[in-house]
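Deliverable D2.4 — example input (structure tokens):
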């Protein structure tokens, strides 16, 4: 992975790690919006919202167009696609690991037999009563 791509992924993951920034991206996925309209949806100051927007701009996730006094924000999804591709690259690995774990647990449970053979701490109250000859 090149240094540019690593830096891009770092900035994208950092940007989307905050719930407010994810909410801003969700809003911009619907349509372009003025900064003041985006800011009005959050219980934080315009200045705080602007800081979040600057982080998103820095990650290349948002583009700002200035039209007179209005600042219009547009979602730029390409960096998200890069991050999704990076995650997808590792999906096969994790899927294989989880499938192997599931097979191991299933095989082990089948080999251990009935609940009465498990240690007392691993059995439910009904299993303990049955193993002790209770009702």
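Example output (designed residues):
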């Amino acid at each position: 992975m090149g240094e540019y791509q690593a830096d891009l992924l770092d900035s994208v993951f950092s940007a989307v790690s905050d719930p407010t920034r994810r909410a801003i991206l969700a809003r911009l996925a619907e349509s372009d919006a003025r900064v003041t309209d985006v800011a009005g949806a959050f219980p934080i100051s315009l200045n705080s919202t602007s800081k979040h927007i600057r982080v998103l701009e820095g990650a290349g996730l948002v583009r700002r167009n200035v039209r007179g006094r209005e600042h219009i924000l547009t979602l730029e999804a390409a960096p998200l696609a890069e991050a999704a591709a990076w995650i997808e690259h590792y999906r096969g690995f994790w899927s294989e690991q989880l499938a192997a774990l599931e097979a191991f647990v299933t095989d082990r449970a089948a080999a251990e037999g009935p609940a009465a053979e498990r240690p007392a701490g691993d059995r439910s109250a009904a299993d303990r009563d049955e193993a002790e000859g209770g009702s």
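The mean pLDDT is 85.
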